[in-house]
Queue: 2 jobs
Job 1
Amino acid sequence: MNQPMDDSPGLTRDPYTFQPMDPTVTMSPSANRELPDGWPGSLTVCVALAGARASGKSLYVAVLVKLLRQLADEHGVVMKPANRQTKDSYAVNYENPFFEEMGLLSSTPPVSSAEAYQRDPLIYDLGFHVINGGEQRKVFLVLRDVAGEDLESLPEDQSVLDFFQWAHEVIYLFDPLKVSEIRLLLEGTVSAESLGADATDVLNNLLQVIRPGALAQEGRPRPRLAVALSKFDTLRSLANSANEGWAEIMGNRGAAFNRQLEPSYWGSDPELLNEEIRSMLLRLDARTLLNTVRQEAEIYGMDVRYFVNSSLGSQPQGSRLDRTGIAPFRVLDPVLWLLYDAGIFWPTTENHQQRGEQWL
Ligand SMILES: Nc1nc2c(ncn2[C@@H]2O[C@H](COP(=O)(O)OP(=O)(O)OP(=O)(O)O)[C@@H](O)[C@H]2O)c(=O)[nH]1
Ligand SMILES: [Mg+2]
C-alpha cells in the first residue's frame, strides 16, 4: 500500500501479542522488552502454527526457517534472527537436534510449564522490501510455535493463546491419519500409530480461541487460515499401494499435490492445489473437517486455503531421520500465500500492485 507511515496503523505489531502497537516506540508494550533494531515503522508479519500433538508443527518450523533463508538468498536479501533469543532458541530447540544430530524433536512443552520456550516467538529480519508497490519498509517475520497439548485441551487461562486472534495467518497442520474418516479408510495400508487428538476436535478448539464470529462482529480482521495436510509423504507412498483407488489418485503425476514447481505457489498453482485438496478431502470423506471450516470459519469471513506438505519427505526411521536426508515438499506455500500478497519475494518483476487481495 502506498501510504505514508503515520497513515498505516497496524503495520507494526507487538511480536509477543501480535497486536498493533505504536509504531514509534522501541519497547514491546506487553512484554516491556526491547524490540529488535529497526522495529519502529516496520511491517511485522505474524504467523502462528496450530495443530494436535505430533501433527508436525515444530519440524515444520525447523525446515521452514531454512527454506525461507534460501529463498531470501535467491532474492539477494539476508534473512537473519532479529535478536539473540531467536538465534539461541532456533539453534537449541530446532536446528541442533534436527539438522545436526539428525534426530526428531521433543514434544513442545505446554505453555504453563517453565520450559515453554515457545512463549518467546522466533523473530526474523527479512530486510527492506517494497510493500505492495509502495514504499520500502523493513519487514520482520514472527513465527509462533505452539504445544499441541495446549490446543488439545485448552489451558485454564485461555488468554495466553490470544495471539491467534491477531495473527495474519494461522497454519493449521493436521496428520491425515488423525482425521477419523481417513484413518478408517487407510487402515492396514499405512501405520496409524501416533499421538495426538482428532484433527476436527483440535480445529474446533482453535476456532474457539480465535472466535471468528466475535471478531467479525467487532469489525476486527480475521486471521487467514491455511489448512494443511502434513506428513504428506505418507499419503504419497500410497501411489505404490495395492489399494487400486489410492494408487490411482496418488499416482497422478500431473496433479498439483504431486509436484513442486519453481517458482513455488505461483500462477495457477495455488488455485489448482486448493481445489485438488478440497476434493481429496471430500474423497477421503473428511466431511466433518470441511464442514467445520465452512461453518465456523469461512462463514465469518476467514480466508481459508487448503495445502499439503511434508517437512521430511519420507517416514523417519524410529527416532532418527532417514539416512538419505530430508526432502521437504511444499513447506513454503502457506507463508508464500501471505508474503506474495504483500508484494514480498515475488518471482517476477511485474507490477506488484497487480497482485491479489491485500491483507495489510
Ligand atoms: N512421515 C512424516 N512424519 C513426520 C513429518 N513431520 C513430522 N513427522 C512425525 O511427527 C512427529 C512429531 O513432529 P513434531 O514436529 O515434533 O510435532 P508437533 O506438532 O510439534 O508436536 P507437539 O510439539 O507435541 O505439539 C515427528 O517426530 C515425526 O515422527 C513428515 O513430514 N513426514
Ligand atoms: Mg512441537
Note: The longest strand covers residues 122-130.
Job 2
Amino acid sequence: MEHQHASDPPPPWKAAGYRIQLAREADLPRLAGVERAAARQFPGRLIPPAQRAGVVPLAVLREAWNEGRLWVALSPAGLPVGFAVAGTCDGEAFLIELDVHPAHQCLGLGRALVARVAQWARTAGYAALALTTFASLPWNAPFYARLGFQALVPGACGPALAERLAAEARLGLRERVAMRLSLR
Ligand SMILES: CC(C)(COP(=O)(O)OP(=O)(O)OC[C@H]1O[C@@H](n2cnc3c(N)ncnc32)[C@H](O)[C@@H]1OP(=O)(O)O)[C@@H](O)C(=O)NCCC(=O)NCCS
C-alpha cells in the first residue's frame, strides 16, 4: 500500500475538509443510508434487487464499533458519508464492508478508508488483508488491484474465505472474486 510523503499535495478529501476517523456511536444509525446509496451503483445483472437493498446489520456495526474496527469518512459538516468495517477470516484481516456515498466519491475517501483498515490490520499483527468484491466493476477489483491487492484463484482461498464466496454465489451475486493484500 502506498504511503503519503510530506511533500505530496494533500488528497482531495483532505483539502476539502473531510476527515477519516474511528466511528462515533452516533454515526452507527446513519451508515445504512450510505450503504444503500452506494449499492445503487451495482448493475442488476450482478446482484439481485433484494441483496442490493441489504445492509450490514446494526448489531454487527455496533460490535465492530465497540471493538475499534469501524471507521467513518466525515464530510466537512461532520456527517458520515463513508465507512469501512474490518473483521477476520481464516486468521487474516478481512474487509467486511466499504462504502462511500455517491455524492462524495472519487475524492480518495475509499482509498483512505482501505489504508486505515490496512494500518489497523498491520498493527494487530495480521499477515494480510483479504476481501471479496466484483471482478469487473471499475471501482471494485481494478480499484483494489491499484492499491496492491491480488486476486486469489479459488484454490488459494482458505476455507472461510471459500465459504464466503460460496455463500455470496448462493445469494445470487455474480462475478465475485477474493483478493488479498500482503502486509509483510
Ligand atoms: C468502492 C468505493 C468505496 C470507492 O470510494 P471512493 O471514495 O470513490 O474511492 P476513491 O476516490 O479512493 O477511488 C475510487 C477509484 O475508483 C475509480 N472509479 C470510481 N468510479 C469509477 C467508474 N465509474 N469508472 C472507472 N473508475 C471508477 C476512481 O477513478 C478511483 O480510482 P483511483 O483512486 O485508482 O484513481 C465506492 O465506489 C463505493 O462505495 N462503491 C459502491 C460500494 C462498493 O463497491 N463497495 C466495495 C465493495 S468490495
Note: Residues 14 and 102 are 17 Å apart (CA to CA).
